[in-house]
Amino acid sequence: QGPKIEEFENNIAKYCGVKYAVAFNSGTSALHGAYFALGIGKGDEVITSPNTFVATSNAALYLGANVNFGDVEIETGNLDVSKIEISNKTKLISPVHYSGQPVDLKEFSEIAEENDIKLFEDGAHALGATYDNKKIGSLKYSEMAMFSFHPVKHITTGEGGIIVTNDEEYYEKLQLFRSHGITKNMLVNESHGDWYYEMQELGFNYRITDIQCALGISQLKKLDSFVKSRRQIAKTYDNLFSENSYFDVTIEKENRESAYHLYPILLKDKYANHKKEIFSRLRQEGLGVQVHYIPVYKQPYYQSLGFNDSLCPVCEEFYKRELSIPMYPTLSDEDVGFVKETLFKVISEFD
Q1: What's the predicted TM-score (pTM) here?
Q2: CATH assignment of 3-220?
């Protein structure tokens, strides 16, 4: 745990305009730490989106909490604020800024305040995005936010994640949790000497390395240019795909700027019925498509917990139709042209 870790944390905090940041060895461990710091425990309920990687909800299960999935918006893939159901056990709402587009933080915040529950942001896709002209992570509406530094994210530390917060108590709990619950700041006993430390919580070895954070410091300097390039590529895609007969694209809502971690397309119904074949053909033609995501409640483990296989109808439709096409800062105009030509060629085979 060398000096570059603290330097990287300080740089991220400054970028977001908040007081504190705590870096972890993955986005998943950062989520685990955040839910712990927020006091999530056995019998509590965490509301989140099923249109995400499993880590968002798994972090609640790690702590003995229950997951309540809300349905999503078809036009964005984001958690639909009108589809969540608060119970007397709900302790946290954890929406995901899917693909890099912010959720409606103001509306989620109002619901959280009305029900005396916490709001957390899974910003794994959204470093560099804005909501009402403020960066995701500025925490105007939420307690904390998480960003991921997995190799395919906007910036990388090889693997890693970070939590940002303005709350000193959360900050201290996060630091304890990532390092076995150990601190050298004595709270219980007097120090026996400079070697002495206390284990105050049952924590984990979720520490990131100095080498990784040195990379993160370098990467962060390029973040704004990376996001600018992604947004320019998305605009080109939008123009190329306007009024095509094969698929729809997700929309960027008012007062929000997506960081475009992903560029999802939604196949029209007649083509969505052939998604498996279209996916394979696109790969055969050299187009690196992917699907984001299989609804979490469909996973065998979640099925074993009793989740309905078709729990969220809109998420079901989104999953049936969605393909993610190439999106990264160095995509050239030639690359983008290849994406369009290959998509139209392959999908038209299924007319």
Answers
A1: 0.97
A2: 3.40.640.10
